[in-house]
Write a structure and sequence with these properties.
12 strands, Spore Coat Polysaccharide Biosynthesis Protein SpsA, Chain A, alpha+beta, eight-stranded mixed β-sheet, four-stranded antiparallel β-sheet
């Protein structure tokens, strides 16, 4: 079961085919699962830290760069060429292989678009200092802070006046979408939304997770907000270490 379209009206019709959000969630849980293509490198390296990487081309310059940067740890690539690609499913599948084959203490989860990274030995040294935390974030040009929020009175007024996308507004209402994750970067959101939660750091597209937590993602999510869900569940169990990476963003597998 799959639905794809580049036509906005077709997508609106698709969402309108559900009577409520429960029906949509059932569809998401029953949709066809993708096939996976796994390639493992550096199997002979120390196994306390393993990287799980998503890529759409194992021979691309992005994947080759990852192999250079992480040449001292095992790397598990999941090739994401599937026409029903799903980020959460891809990560979870490769994560299970990492645990079964290497049983590491820490697992890096990231995209294949890392342009720069400090030496992997520094990352290991920083992880050795982490105590009683299951989600580790790094200094990252794509990291962001999230909070959950409801539409403000201003946004509700604009919606009633038809100043915002009427069809999208109607879908939100039909599916009872009241609370949504909002980044703390956009000033206009201060006017448009009223926060209903404390701020928390989002794992975004690079983080390290302790094996004690288990499989990272709820794969009901379809390439959106699975990282927010993970970060919210672990918001009291997150730490950031002194390790820096730089990602390209927008020019790799996720841009499809």
């Amino acid at each position: 079961m799959l639905y794809t379209s580049n036509n906005e009206q077709d997508l609106i019709k698709f969402y309108n085919s559900f009577n409520n959000k429960d029906e949509l969630i059932i569809w998401l849980k029953q949709r066809r699962m993708q096939e996976h293509s796994i390639k493992i490198f550096n199997e002979d390296k120390p196994k306390d830290l393993v990287a799980v990487i998503l890529t759409k081309d194992i021979n691309s310059k992005f994947a080759l760069r990852i192999r250079e940067l992480f040449n001292d740890i095992p790397i598990i690539f999941n090739d994401t060429k599937s026409d029903i690609w799903n980020f959460a499913q891809s990560v979870n599948y490769a994560y299970k292989i990492a645990i079964k084959q290497f049983n590491p203490k820490w697992i890096i989860i990231c995209n294949d678009d890392i342009a720069e990274a400090e030496p992997i030995q520094k990352l290991k040294q920083q992880l050795d200092k982490v105590v009683d935390k299951e989600l580790v974030l790094v200094k990252h040009n794509h990291s962001n802070t999230i909070h959950f929020a409801k539409p403000s009175l201003i946004r509700k007024a604009l919606m009633k006046m038809g100043k915002m996308d009427k069809e999208i507004t109607e879908i939100y209402s039909k599916l009872n979408v009241e609370i949504m994750p909002i980044p703390n970067k956009r000033k206009i959101d201060i006017l448009m939304y009223k926060s209903v939660s404390e701020k928390f750091e989002n794992s975004s597209d690079f983080y390290i997770i302790n094996r004690t937590f288990g499989v990272p993602y709820d794969d009901t999510f379809l390439n959106e907000a699975e990282d927010v869900d993970l970060s919210f569940r672990l918001k009291n169990n997150i730490t950031q270490i002194n390790y820096t990476i730089k990602c390209i963003g927008g020019g790799k597998f996720g841009n499809r």
